[in-house]
Amino acid sequence: RHHHRSNMAFNFGAAKTTASVAPLFGGFGTTTTSAPSTGFTFGGFGQTTTSAPTFGFGTATTSAPAFGTGLGTTATTTAPSLFGGGLGSTAATTTTTSLFGGGAFGTQQPALGGLGGLGGTTFGGFGAQQQKPGIFAQPTNAQNNVLLNTATALSMPTVFNDERDAILAKWNQLQAFWGTGKGYYNGTAPPVDFTPENHFCRFKAVGYSCIPSARDEDGLVALDFNKKDTDVRNAQQQLVESLHKILGSKPTHSVNVESVRPLPGDKSEVVIYIIERNPNGTSRRIAASELFNFLNQNHVKGQLTQLGVVNMVAKTTLTAAQVKQLTETPPAGIDPLIWEQAKKDNPDPERLIPVPMIGFGELHRRLKLQEYQTKQHQGRLDAIAGDITGIQGNMSTMQSKIQQYRRKLQELSHRVLEVLIRQEAHRKSGYAIQAEEEQLRVQLEAIQVELTAPMQFKGRLNELMSQIRMQQMPSGRSEERYSMEATMQEEIKQHLKQQQEGLTHLISIIKDDMEDLKVIKQGLAEVTQHHRR
User: Fold this and answer.
1) Fewer CB atoms inside 10 A, N or C side of the chain?
2) HSE-up of residue 94 (Cα within 13 Å, Cβ side)
3) By C-alpha distance, which of 115, 117, 118, 136 is closest to 319?
4) How far is Cα 212 from Cα 109, in angstroms, rounded to an integer?
């Protein structure tokens, strides 16, 4: 195996017979197997290239029984490739036994599944056999003639049979590089059209597409409708009933809608899956490939078109071997060095795969899709931000309610305590004070004295209240300043010091008196006990 090396290779001599193997995206990329032969080539032209057609219903030829025929029917199918049924894939013949209601959904499994919203087993135009010939289409005599004529126009045109043909060849090369215009190569033959898909177009780049995560067993198939997502949601029940009728109205089959999302151009995508319930009570999802093959039949496509379906994609993921096959060989027309660098620059190789972009049209299409996706993400972020704002408001309300309930709980606790006090006092009325109650009274009186002490809690609380009032008072005279002489400050300081010393002396006297009172009280208690004996 080897690759096309350059867009501008002028090779004279050995021609190449090329068999293409599944480049897998929209006509981009061909893995070529070359065998030398004799002939003339010009930059890859003159090759016989074998590849599957691009997007269209004509990509898979299926011989399947009608919906609801006998069990065990076989079918021969040319399997579509990963991206849009063809696009450079080799044909594979698969003979399988139908598993869906006795051959209801066709009988063949596609070779590969879809890739995000940019590929997949899909058809374009929906309802028409489409062949989009290009550099990766199935080789025909006409296409081979176009390649040969293009090579002649770029290398040896024979329009004037003089030196002007060399100038014309350069002009044709410039048009081929640009990817537009017509190339004249013979005075009697019509010109060849230069498109961005030709090998020599210089406006090529490599982007990345997301690898789908759904499996074939999940049975997800996306239907694109030419209606807005709001209209589809409003008529979702009718849509499910119509699809169930198209599938044969079998009681064992049920149509389920996985998701509905908007698409550019007032279109929408509806992802569906089918559940089949067996007589023994078990159920399973119909494989996405089997469902797609049934919906891709001609007699079913017409009914889907009447519902407004313009496209459909089987949502299936890629295997490691398929991803490796995609990335190992650079697509035709893409420099291998650029392709290798694109693989190294892949920001997330596990989720993204490099895909070529050829021409301004493809770049503009991807730009529009990116803008639309960014708009969708921004709308979702705005909705999330609104939800967060609402949650924060609800949290503030809940916090205020919690504080309110705490205050109410405290008030109720005080009321219950008062009720208990009154009940206990009423119950103890007429009884003598017990020793435990006396001890409790002494403790409460000590607490009361401590609370009402001038320099303790009450004094500090009054000081804090006065400071708060001063801060809340309007500062009408806040600009006034007072000054005091140093002698006056010293006199006030000495006076306050004397007052403090006097208070300290008074406190010490009171403490001594309290000690004397305790001694007297103890003596009286001893005398009383002595007299009682």
Assistant:
1) C
2) 24
3) 115
4) 18
